[in-house]
Amino acid sequence: MPVPFEAVLHMGMVVVMFGVAGTGFNLARRTVNDGKPARHSLDDWERMMMSRDERLTGSFRGQAANPTAPKEFATNSVWNTEKIQ
């Protein structure tokens, strides 16, 4: 059964809007991830390394090639501490 030609315009608009929404979502995800694709199926080790990389570089997806950590990394700990009075 053929599709009436009146439906072609509406279906075209639906397809275009799904394409615009998908492209916008992909662009937003890549912007948050510093232009890299999103990560999937992360385990505890990968989350820990991502936290370490964020503390080293200041970026969520950044990685440092420098073998020595900056001086701030010695006091920039993931552990929350409380002040001793």
How would you describe the overall organization of this protein?
The protein has 85 residues and is mainly alpha-helical. The protein has a domain of 58 residues. It is 49% helix and 0% strand. It is built from 2 helices and no strands. The mean pLDDT is 83. Belongs to the complex I NDUFA1 subunit family. Its main location: mitochondrion. This is NADH dehydrogenase [ubiquinone] 1 alpha subcomplex subunit 1. It is a single-pass membrane protein. InterPro entries: NADH_Ub_cplx-1_asu_su-1.
Task: Describe this structure in a few short sentences.
This protein is 49% helix and 0% strand.
Structural category is mainly alpha
Oligomer category = single chain
Which band does the percent of strand residues land in?
Answer: under 5%
End-to-end separation: 81 Å
Order of helices and strands: HH
Query: What's the number of extended β-strand segments?
Result: 0
Overall shape: elongated
Give start-end ranges of low-pLDDT stretches.
none
Question: How would you state the average pLDDT, rounded?
Answer: 83
Q: Rg, please? A: 23 Å
Helix content: 40-55%
**Annotation field: number of helices:** 2
What can be said about the biggest beta sheet?
Answer: none
